[in-house]
Design brief:
single chain, alpha+beta, Anthranilate synthase, eight-stranded antiparallel beta sheet
Length: 338
Amino acid sequence: MSIFVIAAMHLTEVIPALRAIEDAVNQRRQYAAGFITYEAAAAYGLSVYPPLSELPLLWFGLYTRPEVMATSLPTSQASSATCVFGPWQPNLGLADYTAGVARIKQYLVQGDSYQVNYTFALQAEFTGDPQAFFADLAAAQQAQYAALIDMGRFVVCSASPELFFRLDGERLTAKPMKGTAARGRTLAEGEIQRRELQQSAKNRAENLMVTDMMRNNLGRVARIGSVTATPLFEVECYPTVLQMTSTVTAHTPAPVTEILRHLFPSASITGAPKVRTMAIIRELEAQPTRRLYRRSGSDCAGSAGAIQCRHPHRTVRPRATTGCVRRRQRHRLGFRRR
C-alpha cells in the first residue's frame, strides 16, 4: 500500500515531481515505483506532441517498504478471471502508414536521420481482471523487468526484457537492445539463429548506433574517463525471440533528474540522431499516443542509493476491468548504403 502518490499532469510539474521523488528515496529512505511517459520529454525541451489530459505524464507511488508477492494467481482465481479482448484496431489506415514510411525514407536519404522508430497505436475492447492478464503475460514472456501499475482508473501491464538504466550509488549501467531474431523451434535451430543474429552486419550496425548514442549521453553526466562499453553484441534468449544487447557503464555524481535530462527517452525507442528524429516522429505519428507503448516511456523503481528504469516492451493499458485497452505496433526504418 502506497503512503503517498506523486503525479504530474502538466509539463511544469514533471521536473519538480522527479526531485520530490528523489528526495523521498534518498532522504526519507522510502521506496518509489511508477512510470514516466514519452510526452514528459517535453519538460526537457524535446519535440513531442502536447500530452493528452487523461493519463499522467508521470506517476509514482511512495512506499515504506517493498512487499514480496506471488508472481501468479491461484488456479481457482485465474480460471474465474478470464480476460476477453475485442479485435485490435489501428489508429491509422494503410494509406497514411505507407505515406509515413515514404516520408521517412526521404528523410533518411536527405541525411536528417539514420534510423526512425515509427509507431502507431492499437486499441481494443477489454473485459476481465488486469491482474490475471498480467500474470499470464509475465508467465508467457518470462521477462526480467515485468511491471503491474494499478492507478485505479488505468492499469499498466508490461513484460519487458530491456534495462534502460540502473544507478547503484555512483555506478550507472545501461543496456541498449537492438537486433531481434526468432527463437527457433529446436535447440539446434535456436543455436543457428543465435549465431546468425550475433554475426549479422545489419543488426550489429543498428545496435552499435544506439550504443554509441548511449555512450555519448552517459558521457555528459559521467566522471571523466569512466565510460566503458563492454560487452558488445551479446545475444539474450527469451521464450519466442533472441535479442542483441550491449552494456555501457559509467560513474556519475549527478542526480536522477540530470541523468534523465540526457538519457530520456532512450535512443533505442526514438532512433538517431535523437533530437532531429524525435521531431520527425512528432510530424509523422500525428497525435500524442506514445505514452507508455512498448518502449516509449520508462517504468522505474528506486530505493535509497539505487534506482532502476526499464523500457515498457509488450505493454498494454486496460481501463480498470472493462473498457478499452491500448498497445502500439513499432516499425524501425534505417539507412543502409548499398
